[in-house]
Specification:
CATH topology: Rossmann fold
Number of strands: 9
Strand content: 15-25%
Shape: globular
Largest sheet: 7 strands, mixed
Number of helices: 8
Helix content: 25-40%
Radius of gyration: 16 Å
Number of domains: 1
Strand order of the largest sheet: 5-2-1-6-7-9-8
CATH superfamily: Vaccinia Virus protein VP39
Distance between the termini: 20 Å
Structural class: alpha/beta
Bound molecules: S-adenosylmethionine
CATH class: Alpha Beta
Order of helices and strands: HHHEHEEEHEHEHEHEE
């Protein structure tokens, strides 16, 4: 498998999507709404400037706040870089039934969440569609696909489920998806499930990790 080829945005789009997801998409019914969590920290651009990644994977995108921040940092570094956004766009367990919560409402239409379209519209409104490749899938299935297709990322942001077992699964799978020397980082260290999973994954695998601002956790795969 030629990983250099499959890391490119056109090849990822071709393999993941029968039709380009942006083709014919009209974002106008969804005005810009980048509500999200901790997705606008300067830390994202600092990491991207330090690593100059060609391929970034985000696990947990929601409406695209952190994705847009990272995509703009990638654009500033030059063309040819890709950010794959992995999310079911079905929310996490704490989102279920929060129909009146402006931060967690899933935009149900005929019984199915519609927040994916708000995300896609935000990407277009912010001019990031030349970088972002949506991948609507569970984190674990997406990781399995990356592994089966030899896709390896330079930088991986994990911000999906915050349940301890789920975060452990994400860390276990995405550690394999990370290139040697790649950085994995994530949000919400203040959540007990996130903290417990990060600490136990690091201890079990002899990996050092640090925090940034007490909110983000960061670990580097040996090169
Ligand atoms: C905290 S939000 C992500 C916030 C986003 N990074 C931002 O900047 O606002 C968590 C997201 O993870 C997604 N998610 C939760 N569990 C998941 C799973 N097992 N696989 C894929 N996505 C998942 C949810 O649908 C939700 O959109």
């Amino acid at each position: 498998m030629n990983t250099a080829t499959i890391a490119s945005r056109p090849e990822l789009l071709r393999r993941l999507h029968h039709v380009d997801p942006y083709e014919g998409f009209d974002p106008s019914p969804w005005p810009l709404d980048l509500q999200g969590w901790n997705g606008q920290s300067p830390f994202f651009a600092e990491l991207i400037d330090a690593l100059d990644p060609q391929l970034v994977i985000e696990v947990g995108t929601w409406k695209g706040q952190s994705a847009v921040t990272m995509a703009k940092a990638l654009q500033r570094r030059g063309p040819g870089r890709a950010l794959v956004c992995v999310d079911t766009w079905l929310g996490a367990v704490e989102f279920i039934g929060k129909h009146d919560d402006p931060e967690r409402a899933l935009g149900m239409t005929h019984g199915y969440p519609g927040v994916y379209y708000q995300f896609l519209a935000n990407v277009v409104h912010e001019g990031c569609d030349d970088v972002i490749v949506p991948f609507a899938q569970t984190s674990v299935n997406a990781a399995r696909w990356f592994l089966q297709h030899g896709v390896q990322a330079d930088l991986i942001y994990i911000d999906g489920s915050h349940e301890e077992n789920d975060v452990l699964f994400d860390l276990t799978y995405y550690w394999q998806v990370a290139k040697p020397g790649a950085v994995l980082f994530g949000d919400d260290l203040g959540w007990s499930g996130v903290h417990a999973a990060v600490a136990s994954f690091a201890a079990q695998n002899g990996v050092e990790w640090r925090t940034r601002d007490g909110n983000y956790w960061v670990m580097r795969k040996p090169g």
